[in-house]
Amino acid sequence: MEVPGQLERFKDLPMAVRYVEKFDATGVEVLKDNIFALESFEAESDKSTWKLANVRANREQAGKGRVLTRKQKEWRAELPLSSLRLVHLYMDV
After folding, report:
1. 13/90 Cα distance (integer angstroms)
2. Strand 29-42's sheet: what is its strand order?
3. What is the pLDDT of residues 17-76, one digit of tens each?
């Protein structure tokens, strides 16, 4: 997916996102993977806001058969577009 060119197109769908969380002491990228839904992005300012997608993998963190908690629904991640390494659609099978 061309980031951020296709983000608007798939905004309401769950996406598997790999992003740089931080750099370790030697300057190597520490990557993290999550399943998010895009809330908003601004290409000009290199900012994006993501929320947890309502998919089985995220719901199971609260326990099998449970729904997303209020805290999970309200949680947001502010990520610079430049930190995104891989974004693709996520299929909840």
Report:
1. 8
2. 76-80, 47-52, 29-42, 15-23, 84-89
3. 999 988 878 888 899 999 999 999 888 888 999 999 999 988 887 677 788 889 989 999
